[in-house]
Amino acid sequence: MLSKELVAKSVEELAPLIENKSISPVELTEAILDHADATEEKINAYMEMYRKEAIEGAKKAEEEIVNGNYRGMYHGIPMAIKDNVYFKDKVSTMSSKIHKDFVSAHDATVIAKLRNAGVVFTGKLSMHEYAWGITNNNPHYGAVKNPWNLEKIPGGSSGGSGAAVAVGSTVASLGTDTAGSIRIPSSACGIVGLKQTHGRVSKYGVYPLAWSLDHVGPMTKTVKDAAGLLQIIAGFDKNDPTTVDVPVDNYLEKITGDVKDLVIGVNEEYFFNEVDDGIEKLVRAGIQTLVNQGAKVKEVKIPMLQYAEWAELVTSLSEASAIHHSDMLTRPDDFGHDIRMLFELGELPSAVDYLQAQQIRRQLKQDFQKAFEEVDVLMMPTLPILPNDIGDDWANLNGKKVDLIDNIIRFTGPGNLTGLPALSVPCGFSEGLPVGLQIMGRAFDEATILNTGYALEQTNPMKNKKPDLLLNA
Amino acid sequence: MSLTIKEILENKGITPREEHLEILETRWKGMQALRGDLKGANIDDADIALRNIPGGDHVE
Prior knowledge:
Largest sheet of chain B: none
Pfam family, one (chain A): Amidase
Helix content of chain B: 25-40%
Radius of gyration of chain A: 21 Å
Number of helices of chain A: 18
Strand content of chain B: under 5%
Strand order of the largest sheet of chain A: 6-8-7-14-15-11-9-10
Number of strands of chain B: 0
Largest interface: A-B, 31 and 31 residues
Strand content of chain A: 15-25%
CATH topology of chain A: Amidase signature (AS) enzymes
InterPro entries (chain A): Amidase, Amidase_CS, Amidase_dom, AS_sf
Distance between the termini of chain B: 50 Å
Shape of chain A: globular
Helix content of chain A: 25-40%
Keywords (chain A): Transferase
Number of domains of chain A: 1
Organism (chain A): Pseudogracilibacillus auburnensis
CATH architecture of chain A: Alpha-Beta Complex
CATH superfamily of chain A: Amidase signature (AS) domain
Family (chain A): Belongs to the amidase family.
Oligomer: heterodimer
Number of strands of chain A: 15
């Protein structure tokens, strides 16, 4: 098989070929690494490539498979991971200057689980410094570019993961998400991003941005790839005080594509207010395709959303500034200009502000819970705006110049505040850039949002479109 | 007496960059506007249930 064909394939396409020995993990890993070499100059997604270890890992996987010890969907699949997820004895920089030489003595729990599943690690991927931003325009390691338009941001903070999956320099990845950092780059780069329920996946060994809002989750080419990856990383971990010991579904088994009688909730006041016209059109069309398959739409009210932006900002700013307080006292010049400003801002809220934000958060959870008594999922745009030009701190919203960071997290932040699962699935292109549709669900009900996302994915007329750089590198 | 943002930060030992002060002022005002008066939120008796679990991180 041509290496271009290999790098374009999803895990769900590759896994049966690996299992029946039509392709070898070594051949696949070499193709991915060569493609990464060819695209890096333009994309800048990788922080570090583990070529030697990856080939060794692929040989080991191949030997196991040849000997009849196939471990499952991700066995022999090459993956690069965001650089705030720890690998034992490897540098994890968080794409920062301060942690440029930090070596973890242990694997993150998610990495240990992926090792057991037979994943081949090809390297670490760039991110917005300390995950505290959404442009991935990193002052220390350079900007990551969007494979669909090299002048545009890939979104962030998991921008290296988003760009690498989209351009084919990794088959799948893990990102982290505190206000949208999995879903934002997934939408901007035209891939699938899942922020599962808070507590479903261990964060042990992942450098924190804001403890109560942080998640680590799948960024993949397809919904089934995300389901397979979640299956591996989900579960209780005694090392993470926020994980919850609830049974893990069989996600792939529950993906049928059947959405007959599914009730889709739509909240017009918040999630369809101030949205780019092109995005709104595609998202409404996406919802309509599910209605055409037998789903129903019901409008829901979620009054506390009016305070969600404030609660998200106070919580994330305060927690992030607490984590970096010591370095802000002793070496503030070692932070990039943009995140230093956010750390300064995070020193301003009072203890009362923080606690009131938590009170809002609880009531917001109750509002969502009430909404989910009437509907099975909620649908909205992942982003209200299209990816902006690299270097700009503003975005264009229907001809109006608006603040970038405030707007780009508007629809993703509530998923972090409530901890509810949320999936971004591509639903088309506007002005040549991918658009994501976000599906939120009940706590620990990832199965329903994955099935809904799968049904949507099957109807997306642009689903087989690839960036030119993937095809012509 | 009201303190400036610069004074609040300096009291915590943090030296803000001069060019950040105007942006910080604007952003802080923007956050206050988003908060509003929290009228209708009924937060006075909203129990946020911060957990204090003796014996470890998890109830087992």
